[in-house]
């Protein structure tokens, strides 16, 4: 089984457009949407038979008011101002540090699991999809990303699927670390802009730390041809293979408006994604 994750280091570069295109082009696939802050692969891939499950990402304090003596020690020790003057805990502000429970002289504080999101598994016409969504204020430490990846791997192994395509989150923080570890290839999507290149450099450092090989796709390369050429030269010096050059194509946006993968609407953009996928398969 091979796992490929599509990342960019920043949002808005075309990760979901590319990853959903890859998933749609595969013969059999498990698609994993690891962007749990804004999961949307299910919209483009036409998921059906959706099953939803609760996710508890952390524990928060709960004070038994009948047992509480209102000594105020928990108020003094809480660094997040999560406990009100009437000794009620705000679960959004509580970071689950456990200090209030440890200091309570009458054991009136209990740490309870808090539902911070949901994860789902669904069927696709050529496989399965696993994704998730955080609730407002939900804790995202990478645990939910790890959950959807684990479930995606289980589905792939249980059904003899040899490919997992992961739509990764933006940035280089804990969710990205959870999405990149143990994968076989990172496909970095980058635009020929200053901010995108800056974030790409951080992503390459992260992938290098985990010793995961990187290939690159330059999206909307024709909006700044000279910058794209300089970007490709930089990638070559870093030993990164450029597997695709996607032009600015209005058909890609029309496909997204129709809630369908970009490869399902013919045009130069779709053709470029198909070509990139063939090269990614060869690398895998």
Topology:
Layout: E1 2-7, H1 15-25, E2 29-33, H2 41-45, E3 48-63, H3 73-77, H4 99-103, E4 109-124, E5 127-134, H5 143-159, E6 163-167, H6 174-180, E7 185-190, H7 194-209, E8 214-219, H8 225-237, E9 241-246, H9 250-257, H10 268-283
Parallel strand pairs: 1-6, 1-7, 2-5, 2-6, 7-8, 8-9
Antiparallel strand pairs: 3-4, 4-5
Helix pairs in contact: 1-10, 5-6
Order of helices and strands: EHEHEHHEEHEHEHEHEHH
**How many β-strands, per DSSP?**
9
Helical stretch tally:
10
* Low-pLDDT stretches: none
Assembly context of the chains = single chain
Folded structure, characterized:
The protein folds into two domains: 2-46 and 125-283, P-loop containing nucleotide triphosphate hydrolases (Rossmann fold); 57-115, Alpha-Beta Plaits (2-Layer Sandwich), CATH 3.30.70. Helix 7 (194-209) links the parallel strand 7 and strand 8. The protein is 36% helix and 26% strand. It has 284 residues and is α/β, with parallel strands linked by helices.
Give descriptors for this structure:
Rossmann fold, Alpha-Beta Plaits, 36% helix, alpha/beta, 10 helices, 26% strand, 2 domains, 284 residues
